[in-house]
Amino acid sequence: MTPRWLWPLLLFLFLAAALLSMGVGSAAIPLPRLLSAAFGNGDPVERAILLELRLPRTILALAVGAILGLSGAVLQGWLRNPLADPSVLGTSNGAALGAVAALYFGLAAAHPALLPVLGIAGAVISLLLLLALTRGSESPLIFILAGIAVGTLAGAGISLALNLSPNPFAAMEITTWLLGSLEDRSFRHVLLALPCIAIGLLLFAGTGRALDALSLGEESAASLGIDLGRVRMRILLGLAIGVGGAVSVTGAIGFVGLIVPHLIRPYTDRSPSAVLWPSAAGGAVLLAFADIAVRLVPTSNELKLGVVTAFLGVPVFLAHLLKERRIW
After folding, report:
1. Within 10 Å of residue 128's Cβ, how many Cβ atoms?
2. What is the pLDDT of residues 216-274, one digit of tens each?
3. How far is CA 195 from CA 62, 188, 253, 295, in A?
4. Does 110 reside within a domain?
5. What Rg, from alpha-carbon coordinates, does the chain have?
6. Which of 2, 8, 30, 147 falls between 20 and 30 A from 74, CA-CA?
7. Residue 269 domain-assigned?
8. Which residues lie closer than 8 Å to 134 by C-beta, 6 or more apart?
């Protein structure tokens, strides 16, 4: 059961993060002028900054954070493992390898859409490989071990691409992308990522009851009428399409799916279904505020979002791990 104050707090933070993300940057736009620009009035320069730079960046931060937070909660419930996140099944690395291939072979320069398309293709291929390795098994441990193998293989492919880069500029482009960022994203990126994220959210939407049943074990869930194969396929497709589409546009952004469910869980009854949608809202808020921090830190080059989420994530995760280790 979720306390009454949790959703109002998350919605308030969501709205605050959205407004701050659109108003904060090298050229700050106060709220009254921000609202004026949003309705097509005010300074044309501020209107251009809002509509062409800040708004798509804000939409992506909220949408990508939501799918990462929700996928982390779904995986932790499905695998009954508090350390599970989108990278544990190799999905993130598979998407990253597809995007790196687009950069390595120059396909991204030929057409910008090929970067996210190959990223999603990489996630789907990693899913197919995972299914081949785990065929006939419902054991969470088998999926985790197979996911580690698939993720390691994709990571090796990324390292190989860096090692064999034809010139230092190609290697720098790949490295920059792997650090994760929302800088210079436009509505083209939003249109590429948002349908994939929406499909991922829809696939995850009906898994709450099944995850609650799975917390009792596979046999108990099956006796309650849960189709384990169907639930597994929904989760894996949600990961491949939703997370694959998100990662292929933003680059590798870690720790969001791992941390957010741990932040939300103490304020619920700890059942998997109660953690799902608050984790989606929490992921959106966390990534949006991390992107705001990226713009506010005074550096010669803008910090990469993946670096900030890692620095935010490790201490928060360790603190909650030490606090709740006996509960798990």
Report:
1. 13
2. 877 788 888 888 888 888 998 898 889 888 988 888 888 898 889 988 988 888 889 99
3. 14, 12, 19, 27
4. yes
5. 20
6. 8
7. yes
8. 142, 143, 146
Amino acid 255 reads: F
Residue 24 falls inside a structural domain: no
Contacts with 178 (C-beta within 8 Å, 6 or more apart), sequence order? 96, 100, 158, 251, 252, 306
Look at the chain and report how many structural domains it folds into: 1
**Domain assignment of residue 39, yes or no:** no
Query: What letter represents residue 291's amino acid?
Result: D
Cβ–Cβ < 8 Å for 91, 126: yes
Q: Can you read off the two tokens belonging to residue 240?
A: 């491949």
What count of Cα atoms within 13 Å lies in the side-chain half-sphere of residue 126?
37
d(CA 55, CA 284): 15
We report the CATH number of the domain holding residue 276 as 1.10.3470.10
Determine the pLDDT at residue 321.
Answer: 67
1-8 own/partner pairs: CB under 8 Å, 24+ apart = 1/268, 1/269, 1/274, 2/267, 2/268, 2/269, 2/274, 2/278, 3/267, 3/268, 6/264, 6/267, 6/268, 6/278, 7/278, 7/281
Give the predicted TM-score (pTM) of the model.
0.89
Is residue 327 over pLDDT 60?
Answer: no
